[in-house]
Amino acid sequence: MSTQDDLKEAFAGESQANRKYLAYGEQAARDGMTMVAKLFRAVAAAETLHAHAHLRAMDGVKSTADNLQDAIAGEEHEFTHMYPPMLARAVAEGHKRAERSMFQALEVEKVHYGLFLQALQAVKSGQDIHSAAIRICPVCGHTVIGDAPDECPVCKVKGEKYLEVA
To answer: In this structure, are strands 134-136 and 163-164 parallel, antiparallel, or unpaired?
Structure first.
């Protein structure tokens, strides 16, 4: 083991804790436990700080163009190599909720890949993305630059439900 290995493990652990605590906070809020929900959100934010510090220590944050290249490679890996066998296993095992979550993630990662390619083209020409808004489907994460579609092409939720990202 090396310090670099430790940083990778710590980054992964802190990143997972952040996501898990945000989900726990949502459940606490649904259960009417507003302060417990707030505690989960606060600790999730702290875990993000830790994860970002570990990523920076690994020299994992580079120029925007380099970061976009890394994101493009990651998204492509997810929809070409990671999710297809996972989806096949979920189908084979009859695990309907896993099948739905894997299918939706696979389809949305393709969209993310295309959006990151668009962004990279803009950055390489010295521009930012030209749009007033970026929106996501609250069910599957389908992402659009600009107006939401009438209906999500992945999960069929109504476009009016899309959330604008600040």
So the answer is: antiparallel
Instruction: Compute the mean pLDDT over every residue in the chain, rounded to the nearest whole number.
Output: 97
Calculate the CA dihedral of residues 75, 81, 82, 84 and round it to 10 degrees: 110
Element (H, E) at 144: strand 143-145
Phi, psi of 151 (to 5 degrees): -145, 140
Structure tokens at 80: 């070409």
Alpha carbon distance 40, 33 (integer Å): 11
* CA 97/CA 3 separation, integer angstroms: 38
pTM: 0.92
Separation of CA 50 from chain center: 18
Residues 136 and 143: their CA atoms lie apart, in Å, by 4
User: How far is residue 42's CA from residue 122's CA, in Å, rounded to a whole number?
Assistant: 35
What is the tens place of the pLDDT at every residue in 112-150?
A: 999 999 999 999 999 999 878 999 999 999 999 999 999
Superfamily, domain 3-57: Ferritin, core subunit, four-helix bundle (1.20.1260.10)
